[in-house]
Amino acid sequence: MSASEDDPENESQANGDAAPEAPGAGGLEFIVWDEDRMGTGVASIDEQHKELFRHLNELYRAHRAGLNRRDLDKILRFFSHYAETHFHHEEEVMEERQCPLRHENRLAHAKFLRDYQQLVEDFSTDEDADQIATEIEKMAGQWLSTHICRVDAALRDCPAIVPKAGDPGTS
Ligand SMILES: [Fe+2]
Questions:
Q1: Considering the entire predicted model, what is its pTM?
Q2: Residue 148 Cα, ligand 1 centroid: separation in angstroms?
Q3: What is the pLDDT of residues 109-162, one digit of tens each?
Q4: Is the distance from CB of 112 to CB of 2 less than 8 angstroms?
Q5: What architecture is domain 43-157?
Q6: CB 128: neighbour CB atoms within 10 A?
Q7: What is the whole-number distance in angstroms between the Cα of residue 159 and the centre of ligand 1?
């Protein structure tokens, strides 16, 4: 079986270790899931996208609640790790389905990770960590919403390719 939406291993790979808890979490939502615009029709990818939103909301709340720099740094690095694992899974699914946007998707992921990781480095070394955390939230939030709606949602039009009887390798 290929790495499809039904493979539970993909979920566990992306879940990984837990990020630090935000104190005084409250109900603040920085970024909100919109099924109609963001749903890809691939359950594992939608779940991972929702998880990315949860982590970003957690970062936003932790930042507003005044969590210390070291713990914010852990949340930032956890997000990067989760995003990387998710991108890998999504790229495999797009490749399997021969989605026309698969190359653009791969390039966009690589650029996002470079930009994000640079900002996280700045966060850990720069004096104005507070301002950089705000910049990271904005950048990641805008990028995720736009990218999911414009690129990932193309998966809706790319059904899984089922090998037909008689195709090489199906005998
Ligand atoms: Fe993507």
A1: 0.81
A2: 6
A3: 999 999 999 999 999 998 899 999 999 999 999 999 999 999 999 999 999 988
A4: no
A5: Up-down Bundle (1.20)
A6: 11
A7: 16
